[in-house]
Amino acid sequence: MRTGTLKQILLITDGCSNQGEDPIAMATLAREQGVTINVIGVMEQDVIDDQGLKEIEGIALSGGGVSQVVYSQQLSQTVQMVTRKAMTQTLQGVVNKELQQILGGTKKMEDLPPEKRGEIMEVVDELGETVELDVLILVDTSASMTHKLPTVKEALLDLSLSLNARSGSNRFSVFAFPGKKVEVEKLLDWTPNLESLTTIFSKLSTGGITPTGPAIKEAISYFQQKKRSLRSMLSRDDEQFFEESI
Amino acid sequence: MMMNNSLKSLSKLSPGTVIHGKWHRNQYTIIKELGNGANGVVYLVRDSSRQVALKISDNPSSIISEVNVLKSFTKVQGSALGPSLFDVDDWETVGKQFSFYVMEFIKGPNLLTFIQQKGPEWLGVLLLQLLADLDVLHEKGWVFGDLKPENLLVNGPPIRVRCIDVGGTTIKGRAIKEFTEFYDRGYWGMGSRKADERYDLFAVAMVIINTAYPGRFNKTTGGISQLMGMVKQKPELNLYQSIIKNALSGNYQTAGEMRRDVLAALQPRKQKSDAGNQVKSRSQLHRNGAKRNVTKKKGGLFETALIILTLSFLYFFYIYVQIL
């Protein structure tokens, strides 16, 4: 079965975008290029307004991912749950496509009787354990997020702990928006663990604007750049084959 | 945790709602909600004859994953691992499809509530049962994962601790599927989230600590120093102190090893831990024993004499009557 590397953007924000392209359009663009977008809305005492909520759900829906709104205390657990859920969802899609080729028509796992789903799910679980995963983390650093950033950092360290327990390899990179002078700033290049994040995060400056759309656009192009680089062409071929018999 | 919309609608099913199985055509009438989590809602329902528990979710893959685990448990003969599985099906309603499975309804308070109600002496017994179950589970290649008091119900009589919610149950060697921070080795910075026996045993130790801290506590420095510091503050944890330390540090390779130590801790103590006291108490013990033996012997002699006396008196009486 063909899975390749799963590509995810994890967007952590606390409200609505207010500058640049429509983030939902950018999410759709990401999905077209095989990148899934998950969104986590972080609340503290404040509640996210309807408009913000709509945008959070819209981005995830268009980006083929999962969204969740939580209080910051529950962030760690949510980050890992959302990432895993989105992985399963993507892999499920791959497996469903494969099923359609075997069974014909538009059959999905849900169209099979429950007894027959067990083995398929085992394949999905197995893939989830072994597939290579790239997660680009996009952190909203607008003013209202300032005091939530330490919690975000904790949650991200926790995420790398969870994902590194898998046998498949992981790579993370971290971007903040708005950046110091630009809309989006790269904080951390692709790395298998997020330990190095500790120092960078304390230096973050926060700004007033929330250019979510442009941030997503930039993130997608970062995935593309990576694809073009010779090193990754050699070591991490996108068209990897996982031989699985269903 | 906030739930997404479709899950929210699932947690609002009112008593009396009938869930129709699409494939097996069984019907279940909702009695009440038993609990809900990130992956679904559990209801107490009635089928044609009895009360059973039904877990329903908008995410078919999580339902099937759990069903896979429960199915493999039923292959373990005569075990109490997880609830027994009765049915798996889909429910189609207003254009939406939900997946559900039906299992044995395990009635009873959770481990923490039970101990609070019945007394701390129950902790040891329940730990022995739990560790025996975990040993079997581990031997079959599984790690329970999300071990916490809420997932441990005390059923009976006869009193028996049962694990419910297999959402976190993971094949050994893989990444733990679901966990709760307080009971999670990774959260305390004391190891990875790769499923192994020691992951569960760490959680068991945290459950023991939890009995003395029902409100749990937060991570400050994390690590063994914070946890053992908290343990030492509670005299009721003295009995289990070394066991907790070993389990937290990953010194037990199997649940069986930990169980042996719990069993040893529960034996009545004949010796005090202080060395001086120990010697003294031991000599006292000897003296007491000797004294008891002497009195026993004396008592025996007196008894014999009494019997002989009575018998000879009766005999003389008999002779006397015969002569007359």
From TrEMBL, chain A:
InterPro entries: VWF_A, vWFA_dom_sf. Residues 1-91, 134-246 form the VWFA domain. Coiled coil: none annotated. Pfam families: VWA, VWA_2. Transmembrane segments: none annotated. This is Ca-activated chloride channel family protein. It comes from Mesobacillus persicus. The lineage of its organism: Bacteria, Bacillati, Bacillota, Bacilli, Bacillales.
From TrEMBL, chain B:
Residues 269-290 are annotated as: Disordered. The keyword Signal does not apply. One of its GO terms (cellular component) is cytoplasm. SMART domains: S_TKc. ATP binds at residue 55. Residues 28-270 form the Protein kinase domain. Keywords: ATP-binding, Kinase, Membrane, Nucleotide-binding, Serine/threonine-protein kinase, Transferase, Transmembrane, Transmembrane helix. It comes from the Bacteria. GO terms for molecular function: ATP binding; protein serine/threonine kinase activity. InterPro entries: Kinase-like_dom_sf, Prot_kinase_dom, Protein_kinase_ATP_BS. The chain crosses the membrane at residues 301-321. This is Serine/threonine protein kinase. It comes from Mesobacillus persicus.
